[in-house]
Amino acid sequence: MSSQASAEGQQNGQGAGQEVTGVPILLDGVTKQYGSKSAPAVDHLTLEIPAGSTVMFVGPSGCGKTTTMKMINRLIEPTEGSIVIDGEDVTTMNGDELRRRMGYVIQAGGLFPHMTVAANIGMVPKMLGWDKQRIASRVDELLELVSLDPGQYRDRYPKQLSGGQQQRVGVARALAADPPVLLMDEPFGAVDPITRQRLQEEMISIQQELKKTIVIVTHDIDEAVKLGDWVVVFDEGAHIQQYDSPERILSDPANDFVADFVGRGAGLKTLGLARVHEVPRMEAVVVTPEQTPAEALRQAEESGHGHVLVLDKQQRPIAWPSVEQLRRAEKLPHIHEENLPVVGTGATLEDALDTMLVSRAGAALVVGARGRFEGVVDLDTVMETLRDRRAGENQPKAPVGTNDEDITLERSPETGEITIVPSGGGAR
Amino acid sequence: MTTTANAESTAETTNRSGLRVDRGSLRSLILYPVILLAILGLLILWLLTADLTNTERVTLAPGELWTMTKQHLWLTLVATVIVLVVAIPLGVLLTRKPFRPFKGFISGVANFGQAAPAVGLIVLFATWIGYGPTAAIAALVVYAVLPVLANTMAGLDAVDKSLIEAGRGMGMSAWAVLWRIELPLAVPLMLAGVRTALVLVVGTATLGTFINAGGLGLLITTGVNLDLSRVLITGSILVALLALTVDWVGRVVEHIARPRGL
């Protein structure tokens, strides 16, 4: 599974390394009103969606989150306000052309049942006038991206695929023309929990690679904090209750509405957000199997540690005997011990904590690529990391999001950063 | 990720059968014309061995029969083509958003056409347009519009709305969604409507004889008027065989035109 390695750096959409291929989106005072009397479905929403980040729209059903998303690609036309994509006002351009520049994924994939997988994926490229050869190779490339063997699945019909596979093809289809923006409407709502988990992990690693601007509508707060760089919690009329990082949504809800929506177990959910590589690691007493137990004991006593780690030539942990065990041993173990408390650097703190609680040492061994030992984490370091995260340190400022009518937006010419300037001369 | 794909693919082998050809229906499609041919053979055998009177011999002369059959088919074909040209675009139009409000009214009119007695319609059109094939065709069209119209609308309405949204969402125009998604998916139901209309028209075209439009109905009226039971029976069986043959052709077309993957 590539999810372990690729999960690193997931917490921040603007993480280093990959080039951002997404573009920023700005909803500027957008309103959707059905009929003149009723309350607006979306009420003067101003929302900044930073380039290359994943923004989750959550809220109870009927809160306007889906309407908001559909106004980004203008499947629903806004009554008021404008939509700006990559600095370009797209409120009045041809809707079909606009939508061809954005990927769109709906629940259960929405695959056309009378077309093969390849024809489904090749639909948008075909509309854009690509030649057959280019479409065919793009189809294969995308099938591989979503972990489906092209030879096996290319010519199948949607009916011949499982729900999870259909959803994968749906994602591949949305990515076909390499759009900078991906809109997903409850994408993983129609699959079983295990498949959903898998698809979420894959989505994270795909985003790791592609760095698109992704907007996902969901009613599942767990999914929102897991996948999102930023989470918007909406109430009726698309009123923003909080627009913040998953950590702060969980640890510092803006009001009772958000707190209710997050529900119980917010602290435990935070554990699922942080990854082992963020935790400072401690050293261990390291010996090779060729050394004698006496040597190992002496090293342990010198450093005051209760355990000694035996590593093989590739730096992979063989065993982790305690001092008491060493005293009884005649020689150090050569064979890799099963059930060592090992976690990968990409594992969540939830996994790490679970491993520590059942380990004799009350700590876990962190291994990196190819199982190489990288350090030890224990309960104290995990708690410390959690405290830091709760304090919200080292977190970038949240993007702009408001339902306030009396504002103007100002874009900094150097950084492109958008800030709110209240107008009306401080009358409020 | 390969483990994921493998785990899911184990469930595929069972799903694979989802596209198998329905052998039962294929067998009946092949058996159907054999039975029709057998009945036709029996009819011919019966006529050859029967002791026919002179009038019967003249009326049932092979050349005469062939001419009447051709007339009958001509009425059917022209009426059906007009029905398709009228009803399918109308059905498409009435399922488009701006025209939906008219759906009830138009369906009512079409219903009226079918509910009215066919004989009455044919005579009515004859007094209006004049005796002859034109009036017969006009009456047949009115009579057969409903099944095609109703099935076109039902077929289009039955298309999963999320597919239309998916299509629009990926940048297909409304027109492209209609052509590439809605109509192909509506084809099975639409063809069933066309087949129903064809069978209706073949049967009803028999009444064309009352207004001088020709067709196999002539055998039946002659048989009744001159009390020639063998002519009457031959006419009835020929009309029935023709209707069943048309039904079979319709089924074959449905079988072939059904989009793969459904």
Automatic annotation (TrEMBL), chain A:
Where do the segments described as Disordered lie? 388-428
Q: What is its EC number?
A: 7.6.2.9
- Which GO BP terms, alphabetically? glycine betaine transport
Q: Where is the ABC transporter domain?
A: 25-262
Q: Which GO terms describe its cellular component?
A: membrane
Q: Which family does it belong to?
A: Belongs to the ABC transporter superfamily.
Q: What is this protein called?
A: ABC-type quaternary amine transporter
| Organism of this sequence | Kocuria coralli
From TrEMBL, chain B:
Task: Name the InterPro entries for this protein.
Answer: ABC_transp_perm/SBD (IPR051204), MetI-like (IPR000515), MetI-like_sf (IPR035906)
Q: Quick one: signal sequence residues?
A: none
**Tell me, what's a Pfam family for it?**
BPD_transp_1
Keyword annotations for this protein, in alphabetical order, are: Membrane, Transmembrane, Transmembrane helix, Transport
Domain ABC transmembrane type-1 stretches: 69-250
Indicate yes or no for the key word Calcium.
no
Name its cellular compartments: Cell membrane; Membrane
List the record's Gene Ontology CC terms alphabetically.
Answer: plasma membrane
Q: Which GO terms describe its biological process?
A: glycine betaine transport; transmembrane transport
Q: Does the keyword Acetylation apply?
A: no
Question: Chief localization class?
Answer: membrane
* Spans traversing the lipid bilayer: 29-48, 73-93, 105-129, 135-159, 197-219, 231-250
- Membrane association type: Multi-pass membrane protein
Q: Which family does it belong to?
A: Belongs to the binding-protein-dependent transport system permease family.
Q: Which PANTHER family match?
A: GLYCINE BETAINE/L-PROLINE TRANSPORT SYSTEM PERMEASE PROTEIN PROW, OSMOPROTECTANT IMPORT PERMEASE PROTEIN OSMW
Name of this chain's protein: ABC transporter permease
**To which species is this protein native?**
Kocuria coralli
What are the top taxonomic ranks of the organism? Bacteria, Bacillati, Actinomycetota, Actinomycetes, Micrococcales
